[in-house]
Amino acid sequence: MIKRFIYVLTLSFLICSCQGDSDTQSDSNSSLVTNITELTNAIKEAKPGTTIVLKNGVWKDIQVEFRGKGTKESPITIKPETVGKVTIEGESDLKFGGEFLIVEGLHFKNGFSPSNAVIDFKISNKDAADEIANNCKVTNCVIEDFNKPKRDNSDLWVNFWGRHNELSNCYIAGKTNRGPTVRVNISGIESINNYHQIVNNHFGPRPVKGGPSGETIQLGDSYTSMSPSHTMVANNLFEECNGEVEIISSKTNFNEFKNNVFYKSEGSLVTRHGNYVTIDGNYFIGDGVNENYGGIRIINTGHWVVNNYFYGLKGKSFRSPLAVMNGIPKSPLNRYNQVTDVVVAYNTYVNCSSPWQFGVGTNIAQADVLPKSEIRSARAIRTTVANNIIYNEKGLESIVVENDKADGVMFKNNIVDNQGVKFNDFNGGITEASLTLKKVSDNIMLPTGIPSNVEAYNGFDFNTIENDLFGTSRKDTKSIGAVIGVDVSNPNILDKSKYGTTWFSNEVEAKDPITHTVTKAEDLQTKINEATTGDIIALAEGIYAVNKSLVITKTLTIQSSGNAKAQLVFSGEANMPLFSLESKGKLTVNNLVLKGNASNYAFASLKENMSNHFGLTVSNTEISDFGYVLKAYKESFAERITFENTSIANCENGIELSEETNDKGDYNTEYLTINTCNFNNVKANVIDYYRGGYDESTIGGNLLITNSTFTNCGAKEKNKTLLNHTGIVNVNITKNTFKNNKVQFVSILWGAKNNVASENKITNSGQLKTEENLKMKLMY
Amino acid sequence: MIKRFIYVLTLSFLICSCQGDSDTQSDSNSSLVTNITELTNAIKEAKPGTTIVLKNGVWKDIQVEFRGKGTKESPITIKPETVGKVTIEGESDLKFGGEFLIVEGLHFKNGFSPSNAVIDFKISNKDAADEIANNCKVTNCVIEDFNKPKRDNSDLWVNFWGRHNELSNCYIAGKTNRGPTVRVNISGIESINNYHQIVNNHFGPRPVKGGPSGETIQLGDSYTSMSPSHTMVANNLFEECNGEVEIISSKTNFNEFKNNVFYKSEGSLVTRHGNYVTIDGNYFIGDGVNENYGGIRIINTGHWVVNNYFYGLKGKSFRSPLAVMNGIPKSPLNRYNQVTDVVVAYNTYVNCSSPWQFGVGTNIAQADVLPKSEIRSARAIRTTVANNIIYNEKGLESIVVENDKADGVMFKNNIVDNQGVKFNDFNGGITEASLTLKKVSDNIMLPTGIPSNVEAYNGFDFNTIENDLFGTSRKDTKSIGAVIGVDVSNPNILDKSKYGTTWFSNEVEAKDPITHTVTKAEDLQTKINEATTGDIIALAEGIYAVNKSLVITKTLTIQSSGNAKAQLVFSGEANMPLFSLESKGKLTVNNLVLKGNASNYAFASLKENMSNHFGLTVSNTEISDFGYVLKAYKESFAERITFENTSIANCENGIELSEETNDKGDYNTEYLTINTCNFNNVKANVIDYYRGGYDESTIGGNLLITNSTFTNCGAKEKNKTLLNHTGIVNVNITKNTFKNNKVQFVSILWGAKNNVASENKITNSGQLKTEENLKMKLMY
Fold it and tell me: What is the pTM of this model?
């Protein structure tokens, strides 16, 4: 349930009045433009110092080529009449070419880019200096839900080229289609040693994409991973950046990640390719529950991970606070180089489930089914882990989890409070101590009580670690951990006014749902349309004859108004769904009877234009006589699909989520949960959930089937398997009953991944088999 | 014939007297030491400013650990009493650990290192700052023929670690064993960003090694090729550095090669791994004949090749003046990355056979026999070739040789005088002009007469190319080519006094050979011993009964004194050679009769201790009744073995050069030439010449068999092949007669390499077959 309340901070008013929009307009270098033609002309005529002011309102379907040459002292600026009052909508984009150009205060929404980027720091590939941007800046802007209609259509929202460009104080959220939100390209000598600044932004929620290519920031790619980039990513807030396992994928050299806050983000900062990255003074804040919040995953050479603070992270393996991967010996360019020459020093870990994992991704056991060039057997070498503090409220079995031996790692002067639980101390490199926590804020608890004889190890070049997490000089102290001392003031890392724009906030005001009662079928769609997101449609007892799809475009609950189940009898034509789940249509159906005509569907996504997610929860409901219970079309995605306490009977097909056959790691839902349901006489596709392509770092789909009964199902299933979940990484089938299903297999589990089954009763229904290794198409 | 004359320059006297050896000794910070114990103690006690003086003489079997901490202003120095008068001999080495340490004026000869390096900038792997060197220097020293006794035993002569170390003004020559002469290691954070200086040295002859690992300088290796090095190689003379195809193998990032002279060196400067190397203002001087003198071979990303001068180079393919290789898509770490983002600008090429080759090393045709990870199909992209001048005395068919398409290369504003012969001008990027040469010196001829409308193309960042080859500023000129204008003074690039030490020269004085006449067998070895290198032993007519090997350790000719052939009848025991060719034993036998006893040998190398090359030329000679005509043992090597106008009859075995079975690319001779010879009844190993291991960049051995007759040979040859030359890259069998040889094959040629046969008459001798692709063991 998302409710949005947009407020303008007093502070931002102050800033605005100081910067003075009206002042600017009266300036002789300033011109107000009202349409794209005027804007284009104004750009053409702009000189150093010119400010082009966009008239307040909606600017639709504009493609802006901002070509010009400002100077450091007198840039050329495009800005709105009033910040936040100019929205860029429809099929629009903005490209920069030239020098010292600034765009500020715009709001991109209700649209998408017709090109490969919303904001591009390059206009064309022509061999000319004014086609690529240098010293250009996008600031104080918002890009929100600016998704291509098709998930597989890839784009970037901010696409860096050139040198010394900046993305600052922006709010960017809601990308669902393929492609990182922000990318820094460095192919071509014009874009190396770029020193771009990505600073002070608020990266708001990016929902789970359901497959790879959903990073929030990607720096380069494997093909340019040998090139020097020197991109700075600093002081940003990453909030619920859940697109995929990598929030930031660093693929070039000499990048710096400083003082960022990663908050409830289901992913990690990953040094995927490239080397010599500095990760200094960042906060990784979890909730002590969610196992998908990650930390820092290390691949390659020469990284320094220092002064970082990790709190309440429950991630393990790929998602550990520190996950050091095994490499592939003599790795191909696009795979995994060995970790060498890494320094992990002066970090603090509080209440993390598995602070340090080494040998992550080792797959030596799969040497028979994978080519040699895929076997990650090269352990980290020449790596130092020193001067860190770990505090565990509840002692862990291992401080260092060795998926493969950490014998190439030197541990020095690390202190752990493990509540007395014994651990491998790596030749004294990790020492037990009794610490206590001092609360600085809700998310920052600093361990105190380091024994006075513990001094920082002085490793090679450690003198270059000049300051601690809070910027205090380390010069005159031998203190370990991220913070020197504990008498520090609250850094207010989650004060959102410190990040993003001066004028936009994603803070939401709590709102109580309104219940809209419906008593006759013809009112249904009207009431649905009237409801706002989060509301409830309550159906009085009775039978509702419906002959057209009910269109759902918001978060809604539809349920019976009393205990007795209202009945929806759907006579729509073949392949038409009773509930059409469109973009942002997140439906909960509760306590209803749904009946079809054997050829139409109960629920379906749109066939196209699913630019945002749908969602479905069905509970306490009786479903019967449909062609499909749920049909998710290609490129549609739901974070969660749940059926519970529901019966499904006499349907041609069941729950169908298998159209992502591109074998690029995509799938249609992150979590499919079937709990305490009863399937009877569902003839095919009883459960069909698919993810294709070998990709060790896509670690989703999740299928849970529990406490359910399947009877007389699968009679028409061509592959003779009742529950199909090919390629889904996490599968748990437990406490179900399978009876008289005419299939060869109940399920074929993928043993090498997290596929398990237990406590199922199987009668006359074929077998439940495990295949250790699944042969999959290599994606790379 | 090498004669050596060591002279001390007047200049060096001046310098010595200024620096004042005796002055130094009288200094209170100076101590004279006479043996290793005193030296060790002196090192222990040394303080900033201390000078330790080694007493003149031979210092044998010393292992020096020079551990200390000097300062920038007051280093600690080890020097000889008199420069050049202290020789380090026997099993000796020198290791540095600490800071600001200098070693100067020493002469390493008559010995070898007992460790993996002669001079090492690291003492041990202990985690301590005084075990690795920083700001240390070796200067004004000589290392000469300091070879391990066995060729396969690898070492380095100068092994860099740490940072800011220097090898300057040294003369280094004669390495024959495995391993680069100088290596810069950067594994470990202590050695990255090292800014080492390799400057003003004279790298004298390094003979052909016969297989890989014979580089003169190697910077890093593939495993550290992602690391920043910043090593400077400048103002060095590379003279006859023929060890292998790579004179310099750059395998790290950001190295600079400036103002070096490559003179008659059979190899190239190769950017083998690593990226962003600058190759600026170097001279590559050939002789207009030798096809082995190379230029610059480019692999990987971001290199700048500017202001270089290429003269009289006849190399092609791998050895072209500019050879741009194809890469392997997604290459494994140790193979070939694609060439991208390279700039080749402002170079001048005079009378080179194939100035520019692209797609070098393409092997798409071998896709069936090689794994995918070996196929070099990725062409250069984003590469600019601009502002270069080419002058060809004789027009070339192609200015750009496209082994694979150069469609990723942009040619701009290049000028060529191709004497009117048409060529592909790449969309006008290469323009014909009529130029004339202006002679600056024997090796420097500058093209003049560039049309006045031709101006330099101003590519991205071209303004960073500040100066031309001679250091003249490019700021106010749009001139193309390596040199601005032609009114320049002779840079005297081959004046050897500009490189290397103040006190040592490898200049040789011409010397006429002396003829030593021998009339009886018992005088033979005595006269051989008396002769100096280059002399002639003349045998009076008659029969010489010899029962012990004649030992050859220098360059000698042994021949009949008149037209009539003297006869050497050898009764030595089985497996004993008549001529024992030891280290540096280069024998010419002319106009003799050599007769054995069927079990002893005519010629053989030593079984071990072949620390330097042998050589053999046999002409106008009759050889018969030997067990082997020539037996080359493992790890022995001859640059040339030639038989001409010679008959070989009734021998159990012929010419045997097949002991390098390690399949690491090694072989026993570079050139085996058989011309106008007559082989009769040689039962096995008639010719057996072997090189094993798939290695695309080892481009030797060379076998020429021409105008010869083989009759009744090979009867006992187990593999039923008369001429065995497995793995030899260049084979030419032409105009020979093969008659009644009981074999299945005369020869099996390797079609994919340079193996050819023509105009041979084959009667009753099996067939001459070509196999396109040979299955070989992968070396990498």
Answer: 0.92
